Amino acid sequence: MSSDINATVLLEGDIVHLSTGPHRLVRLTDGSLCAVPLQLSEEQLLYVCQLDAAALLAHRSESDVAPNEVFDGVSLVETPHFIEDADDGHGTGETVSAADDEEVYEDEDDIPGTSGLQEDGAGSGRDDGRYLGIMEPSKYGRHPVLIYKIPGRQLCYTFTLHKTNQCSKTYRCTGCVKQANTRTSVRVVREIEFERDPCALPHVCLPSRWLNEKSRRTFYGKCHEWRSDERYADLSANVEHGKFLLEVNRAPNLTTEEKEATLSDFHRFRKVRSTISRNMGCGNRDRAVTMESVPDSLALSADGTRFLHYHTPDMHIYYSESIIRRACENGLDTLIADGIFGMHPRDRNGQLYTIHGVCNGKVDVPLLFAITDRKSESVYTMIWSTLCDVLEAAMGRQDLGLHVVVDFERASIKAIRRIMPGSSVEGCLRSALGAKQPSLRTLLEHLHALNAKSLGKLVHYEQYPAADVSLRPRDIRRREKVRGEMERFRLRLLEQDEEVTTREITRYCRRMARFVSEKSNL
Question: Which domain of life is it from (predicted)?
């Protein structure tokens, strides 16, 4: 018995007529052919050609495909879908398969059931008619997202919080917002329970793959940890990336498939280096410190005592009571004040105003630092009155009897004359900072360093009170020359025969002027 078999060879680009209409044959990445509708756009066609047969059939139930049936794998293909949180601000570039089936249900009774995933109390809702979601971290951590996993499939829909009502919350599908800027909303009660089936909503997007979404949310959760703890700012991003992969591999709350998906998506450090560094604070640490917000690591001294004593959005006053007390015990006799004023071009906060103390003419230590954006008399009054209160408490008397050296600003002179007499000129800290306009964090870190240096100077002076002041060699030579000129003029005054003339006095003053400058240490 014989039979004739007529075989038709199909080639790429051929037109075939199926029950749903004319289709064109295209070649997938694995070499197999697939029939696509003729009305697909070039963008959609290019997207399908980048897939393989396994990706097209991965999310379709086996019962949907009858034996020996020609399956149109892309008859329901829409514009490629890029998943993104509504609160993320920009896309992540993660795509889902073009064959992710978005089934159309004409009857309410035909809608799919609830999520079969049970995690953190989110159990199957098919038995009791409840549709429970899973809370996962969002990209920026403002509000968590709610993920609903489609039962029986490795697909899910992601919803982000839109508004909060008295008894419920409204969530929106992130895929629909990204796909067509469509607000597909659903009400949520008791934090995680959807009031209706999320799959029955009028979605215009395709669902995302659960493993990809879970791996992304796991990485977001770690980013929140890096961002919230400032201790990570000084650590290596490469080391923290390795620790993250190790934590994922050992995580007890992740399945084997979820671990493998996360490790596969984020194993390349080059891919996530900028994201990790940005969340750890590397290169962006200064933004966390503002005039309104100063972390405890900068507001407190190393011993845990208060360093920031006066804090308003317009002015900060920093000082250490222990340093001021030690300075008073070691013979504090002079206060020197000067400031660097000029608004920072980026932070728009004022610059530093510092007050130094000199003990017995030998040791000078910074006692108080103020950061302010104004130079009014009331600001200077606040600064000096704060210091005077601390000095009076440390010395145990109100009559301080200190010599004060200030600059020539009229507002500061008026304020200080109400409290202490005297004014003169002194330099600033610009050279010590190494920058004309340092950031606020850099400035505060430098103030902590100066505070530690002051403690070292005072401790050394307590141990060696008779030690000579250290001078540079050129200062020693200058001092010897000045001493020689003074001795020569003294001997001239002791001569009995002739009186000192005006010309000799003028010549002596000119010679002395060669050895004296405002920067010399005599």
Answer: Eukaryota
Structure tokens given for 465: 């009170």
CA end-to-end distance (rounded Å), the chain: 125
The residue range of the domain holding 39 is 15-64
Residues 36 and 128 grouped into a single domain: no
Percent of the chain with pLDDT over 70: 74
Based on the structure, what is the number of domains in the chain? 4
Q: Would the CA dihedral through 264, 270, 273, 275 be positive or negative?
A: negative
Length of the chain: 522
| Residues 418, 349 within the same domain | yes
Cα–Cα distance measured from residue 293 to residue 286, given in angstroms and rounded to the nearest whole number: 11
| Residue type at 52 in one-letter notation | D
Domain boundary among 440, 463, 486: 463
The pTM assigned to this predicted structure is 0.40
Q: Taking 70 as the threshold, does the pLDDT of residue 304 lie above it?
A: yes
The burial of 464, by beta-carbon neighbours within 10 Å (0-12 exposed, 13-18 middle, 19 or more buried), is given as: exposed
Q: Which two tokens stand for residue 415?
A: 């304020």
Model confidence at 408, pLDDT cuts 50, 70, 90, reads: low
Query: In the listed set 233, 260, 283, which residue is the last one of a domain according to the structure?
Result: 283
- Buried-state track 287-322, b at ≥16 Cβ within 10 A, e below 16: ebbebeebeeebbebeeeeebbeeeeeebbbbbbeb
